[in-house]
Design brief:
- GO terms for molecular function: hydroxymethylbilane synthase activity.
- Its cofactor is dipyrromethane.
- InterPro entries: HemC, Porphobilin_deaminase_cofac_BS, Porphobilin_deaminase_N, Porphobilinogen_deaminase_C, Porphobilinogen_deaminase_C_sf.
- Tetrapolymerization of the monopyrrole PBG into the hydroxymethylbilane pre-uroporphyrinogen in several discrete steps.
- By secondary structure, this protein is α/β, with parallel strands linked by helices.
- It has 3 domains: about 120 residues, D-Maltodextrin-Binding Protein, domain 2 (3-Layer(aba) Sandwich); about 80 residues, Periplasmic binding protein-like II (D-Maltodextrin-Binding Protein, domain 2), CATH 3.40.190; about 70 residues, Porphobilinogen deaminase, C-terminal domain (Double Stranded RNA Binding Domain), CATH 3.30.160.40.
- It is about 35% helix and about 25% strand.
- The chain has 9 helices and 13 strands.
- The strands form 3 sheets. A 5-stranded mixed β-sheet has the order 2-1-3-10-4, with helices on both faces. Strands 7-6-8-5-9 form a 5-stranded mixed β-sheet, with helices on both faces. A 3-stranded antiparallel β-sheet has the order 11-12-13.
- α8 packs across α9.
- The longest helix is centred in the C-terminal third of the chain and has 27 residues.
- The structure holds ligand PBG.
- Ligand PBG binds next to β8 and α6.
Amino acid sequence: MTARLRIATRTSALALWQANYVKDRLAALHPDLTVELVPLVSKGDKILDVPLAKVGGKGLFVKELETAMLDGEADIAVHSMKDVPMEFPAGLGLAVICQREDPRDAFVSNTYPSLADLPQGAVVGTSSLRRQAQLLERRPDLQIKFLRGNVNTRLAKLDAGDYDAIILAAAGLIRLGFHDRIAEYLMTDVSLPAGGQGAVGIECRTDDDAIKALIAPLHHELSAQQVTAERAMNRRLEGGCQVPIGCFAIHQEGQLFLRGLVASTDGKRILRDEIRGPVAQAETLGVTLAERLLAAGADAILAEVYGQA
Ligand SMILES: NCc1[nH]cc(CCC(=O)O)c1CC(=O)O
């Protein structure tokens, strides 16, 4: 039996929370196992002053962790599924998806109780093109202002008075104990979440059966089915970089119900579509929905967005 398991993690408060969550669950499952954290600073955590899409996209958050696993310095990496690219380096893969936390976006403000209460021209902080497009579709008067950094930094910027409100993933706020900062949970028809939002995934070496056996009990199959459909849609749309794409799956009457959205960054053009089907076809459902969106003009919208970035 493996006596030791090392978890590669980013050093943000949220990443550490998620890594410690996995650590605690593994320690409880395997009392004889020594579980250690290997904290690593990713490039995405160092470059905070430019939109992610301009510095190479989401992959920047996982590359250092993947290198550590390939070099044998760590055994698993714990990720926010929202930040995990579609393709993995040879020898690595996703082994576990944990039970999903609340997948919704959250409206956070010290002044206004809800999005609908924001006055004309209010300043809203987000650097997510997906959130920006959906906000502007509903409220073209809003001023969207750049906001990056980890969850704590973003809250501090709101508290400093730089914004009337900010939008964050509810999951991150809840995990860090900031649920009381959430003024309004945005319903998914107001802000369709990003693929994988709210889910934590575990990556490991694909040939490491001992490690895979140790982490297998953390897998939550229903969450995995949802995230699989969402990621299949993202992959077909080549949504590797930060893009105005939303996709969100739930179970309904024993089937998967997947909704997708592709938007121009100004929110003036938003394509939406949805699909239902058997859970066993999660992957196909995602690809089919992506292809329908492409046929409806998503390719032209995305080409324009990539051109801007
Ligand atoms: N892009 C950063 C990121 N990655 C995952 C989360 C939240 C936690 C989750 O989705 O599981 C966040 C912060 C946010 O979007 O507010």
